[in-house]
Amino acid sequence: MTALLLLTLAQPADPLARSVRVTFDPPQAHPGETVTLKLTVTLPAGSHTYPTRQPEKAAAASVSRFKFPDAGAVVFVGEVADPAKFHAAPDAELGVKELRTLSGTVTFTRKLVVNPAQAPGSLTVTLPEVRLLVCSGADCRPVKLAPGGTLTVLAGAVAVEPAHAAAVKKALAGL
């Protein structure tokens, strides 16, 4: 089960604002537990956006960008995972053999670990900035989002997964 949360956006009048959501899987977690944050965007018909990485350097400007909060109540680990399904085509204007685009409903994910010392209760997790370039035909426009959602922290800490233990320890060392 995942928790569904509507986002507060920097541009509330943008039609895309009505089709963006954040979920956490699982929606409730113990301190020390790994959770997946999912940012799902349903793009208007006939439009597309871009993944966070392109295979060719010349297409580096055609990407989505995410800023994550500093370590605190949660620690983000690893990189953003782009949606698995994408369209790839050459782009003569950019001079690339493969430009990746995303259309329809797309979900970006990133893992986070709940701070092992976090008290139980409701926890708001806000991404300071998400920038998508949304294109329809030759018309592209930047869309800036500030999504946030609520994760429920349960009582009773668990051990941090070994794969993330060093990164969590390092991130929390200065707190």
Q: What is the total domain count?
A: 1
User: Architecture, CATH level 2?
Assistant: Sandwich
User: Which structural class do the helices and strands define?
Assistant: mainly beta
H/I helix tally:
1
Strand count: 14
Please outline the major beta sheet. Answer: 5 strands, antiparallel
- Overall morphology: elongated
CATH class: Mainly Beta
Care to describe what's here?
The chain has 175 residues and is mainly β. It has a single domain, classed as Immunoglobulin-like, CATH 2.60.40. Helix content is 6%, strand content 47%. It has one helix at 162-172; strands spanning 3-6, 20-25, 28-29, 34-42, 47-48, 65-67, 74-81, 87-91, 96-101, 105-114, 121-126, 129-136, 139-145, 148-153. A 5-stranded antiparallel β-sheet has the order 1-2-4-10-7. β12 and β13 (139-145) form a beta hairpin. The radius of gyration is 17 Å and the shape is elongated. The chain starts with a strand and ends with a helix. The model is unreliable at 1-13 (pLDDT under 50).
Summarize the helices and strands and which ones pair or pack:
Blueprint: E1 3-6, E2 20-25, E3 28-29, E4 34-42, E5 47-48, E6 65-67, E7 74-81, E8 87-91, E9 96-101, E10 105-114, E11 121-126, E12 129-136, E13 139-145, E14 148-153, H1 162-172
Parallel strand pairs: 3-14
Antiparallel strand pairs: 1-2, 2-4, 4-10, 5-12, 6-12, 7-10, 8-9, 11-14, 12-13
